[in-house]
Known about the structure:
Layout: H1 6-26, H2 30-54, H3 59-90, H4 118-132, E1 139-141, H5 145-161, H6 166-169, H7 172-186, E2 191-193, H8 206-222, H9 226-247
Antiparallel strand pairs: 1-2
Helix pairs in contact: 1-2, 1-3, 2-3, 2-5, 3-4, 3-5, 3-7, 4-7, 8-9
Amino acid sequence: MKLFTIPNLMTLGNLLCGCLGIVFVFEGNLLLASHLIFLAGILDFLDGFVARLLKQHSEIGKQLDSLADMVTFGILPSFIIAKLIQLSISQHSILLDLIPSHLLSQSHLPLLAYIAFILALFSCLRLAKFNIDTRQSESFIGVPTPANAFVVAAFPLIIKFNPEFSFLILNSSVLVVYTIVMSYLLISEISLFALKFKSFSWTDNKIKYIFLILSVILLAVLQFVAIPLIIFLYIIMSIMSNFIVQKK
Length: 248
């Protein structure tokens, strides 16, 4: 059994990004942690692509992929959300009076921030469910863990590069609601289309082409703010597509 194939090394690179990202969150460098999530996303795409190209599919590669995703797209986003909740509370959140002052120090997360780790738990459930769910070969059931991770990774970037929207990110209530809603969506039975193309015809891939075009426009106009909107658009368009198919 070959352990160190090129696809497996890429998957381990994904895992390394997650480990380093957690270290950077502890150091307060959320921007670098966010960049590592996007780098891991590229590696996560390439490992499967290269495995197909080199015909190096293996069961160990499949297991490695889920284990790496759990750290990078499950645990790391939870730490980022927890840190953002801590920052939002320290900046006079409406919930400030509910948190004991001794828990607001840099060495302690406030109790509210621990809600963020619900995302890690539900990401684990989502990945386990994906591994045994034969329905997910052509589409996804529930929001994929990388989609959630990309949204969370966008938050520090929005604060840095689109500060006019930072009031939405540095808000404990918004972060808690996001955590709860996304945790549900990760394990929901909502069918979401996958960006896989068997052909490139407009008729067979209309919904995918429209989504990609709208995503490019949003990125060009709104920059990092577009990333959460693109994931929201992805969910809405998938639901609309399912409704249209059922009507037919």
